[in-house]
Amino acid sequence: MQNLWRNAGAYIALGIVFLIFALLEPRFWQPSNLLNVLDQSVEIAVVAVGMTAVILMGGIDLSVGSVAALAPFLAALVMTTSPHALGGFAGMTGCGLLVALGVGVLVGAINGLTITKTFLPPFIATLGMMSIVRGLAYVFSNGTSISEGIPEGFQFTGKNLVSVPVGHNLSANLTWAVVVMAVVFVAGHLLLSRSSVGRAIYAIGGNETAARLSGISVDRVKIGVYIVAGVLAAFGGIIETATVGTAAPQAAVDLELNAIAAVVIGGTSLTGGRGSLIGTFAGALLMRMVSNGLTLHQVNSNWQRVAIGTIIMVAVAFDEIQKRRTRKI
After folding, report:
1. Structural domains counted in the chain
2. SS3 99
3. Distance, CA of 300 to CA of 230 (rounded, Å)
4. Are 33 and 97 in contact (CB under 8 A)?
5. Which of 135, 140, 162, 232 is most deeply packed, by most CB within 10 A?
6. pTM reported for the whole predicted model
């Protein structure tokens, strides 16, 4: 019942914000803009799926933004440096995807192994990895971006799936990225709610010692979850690259903070053991909806940061109040 209320709170907040902006700015509730909000939410939402699993275990991953920058850049570098050796556009796309996702697997595995084998706190381990990976992005790029020569197949998520007529000579575009986001969320939700791995993740977050004594391979689950988080971070970077058409080392700045914010706003406890992807989806939408609405209302971007920060603080305060009430009961 408490999880239901926590999720409902996120969607109630989403509904209130929607109504406020719809009343203040008529352009806000136009179908084209709402689809644009969905499109803008994709990168954060995809990365937040992995972050939700990490936080449910009682961990944190601050390296996802750096992975989202390095992974697609290395992929673009490989694809544009030796395109003929990769066997045409199909080979280039396949090789690029392997490189990008491989970066996610490698960084995630290092995070997991560092946390489980050297006993570094997740915050410190992933903070160090965040700096290392971002530094490597600038080392490999020399501070330059790549926009020419990236094959269309690598940018498929940025392409329109369908155009929806919304008026006279007007249409709203639904991109493949939104479909990919939906698939990732459904798969993640089923994994967390219907599988033994999902139950293990919740158990570890609730009481790691008890989970270990009950026979759960805690270290293996942790390493696997950090690998998944790394892969989804790389995939989020691919989606962003497809959207803007450029792979840049300075991409995805603050992505890790936005992903954590989406998870927390969605009702997942930072101490682990409680939360769901249903709430995370609402959190990701809420953040982009606030940003979009304030932009349409011509509010300074710095005030947008203030608004998002305020929402995060309210969400965490709400979580603490709920925990205190539970303890009293």
Report:
1. 1
2. helix
3. 33
4. no
5. 232
6. 0.91
